[in-house]
Structures are given as C-alpha cells and as structure tokens.
Predict the structure.
Amino acid sequence: TEWAATGAVTLPAKIDTDPKDANAVRLLLVTGGHDHESSFYGVFDNWRDVRVNVDPHPVPFRSDMRQKYDVLVLYDTLQLEQLSDKARQNLKDFAEAGKGILVLHHAIADFSAWEWWWREVVGGRYVLKAEPEYPASKYLHDVELVVTPKPGHAITKGLPQMRLFDETYNSNSAGPGIQVLLTGEHPTSDVELGWVSPYTKSRVVYLQPGHGRESHELPWFRTLVHRTILWTAGR
C-alpha cells in the first residue's frame, strides 16, 4: 500500500498574532512532506496560553530545541534517512529532556525505520511497506466515523462522543503499554485512534484525527488538540 500523496505545502501568512500570557507554552509546529489544507493552522488561533512557531522540516531539527520550546507538534512526514546525525540527536535530546510531544495524524508515518522512535517514544507507527512481522498499513480518505473519548484522563475529561469526517488508518501497529484516549469502530480503521505513549522520559501523545477542514474547523477537535498540548507541557 502506498502512503498518502505528498505535495507542496502552503504556510499561513500569519499565525498566532493574538496577545499571549507571559508563561504561554512555547510550541514548535513542524510541517512538510505531506500535503495538507491551510485550515489546519486555524486550529491554533486564539490561544493565549500557547505561543506557536511554524517551521517546515528538516530545518527545526538542525539546532538544539530544548531551550526554545516546551512542546513539539509533528504534522509532517519525514524519514530517518532525511535527517543528519546531528538532527537525530537533537530530536532525541528533546524527547529525553522531559519535553512534550504531540504526533498528529499523518506524522504517525515519521521515522518508520527508527525503532527507538516508533516503538519507545510514539508507541506505534504507520507501516509503509509490509514486513515479516507487520502488514503494510492502509488509509482511506473521506470516512465518516464516530470517535469515543475514553474517560479517566485530563485530555478527554468531559469530552463528548463526536462524529468526524476524516481519514482512517488501519494496521498502525499500536504497541503494548499505551493508554488509549480515543476509540472508533469502522472497518477501515484501527480501534485505537489516540493514545498516551508508554514513554517515561517525556509526555508523548498520538492523535489520529486531523486530516482536513471538516476536522480542523470543529471546536471538538480544537479543544482536543489544545488540551493535549497543555497536558504534554505539564500544565
């Protein structure tokens, strides 16, 4: 199964121009390598407690991110061979420094050959090509599915069930030890649609929804992303 189409990405002319709290979460949003709608950037509008900087890959990984940012949000598609040894170390240093990481939607396909990343840090991956132990993952656009938040976590507390029009993934190979945040039942989708990674050195969350405008403009989705960012930042 081939991965979803990639193409040019249009960055927003403006993002995050609203006044911010003095102690706002410093967020680095990494895009690139995968086509997406400009409506995505509106998800981060009007948050006083989060300050967003957008930087397409692989540029942000070329320097030490630990002193500049509290949370890394990945909405890109990037493979290990596209990173220099220094960039790999910078990303690893960030994860091991107790920082927050949100892997969002298609970024589950990042670094699919880097076992430390997908097995330990993320707790799952999108399998680009079939392997002896894992079948190739599959995707389907424009699927209507019901997403059910699991109770018992600050991210999902009081969040209602929601019907989304989004993209589904199947055979994402979610690993053991994850704390499931979102579930869904659709024949083209894995049951686990969002989880907290078992990684102990930082707070890492994966959320599958977020393909297009239908989700980007939904207050439910924006609340979910906002809460996740704050939680991964320890707020």
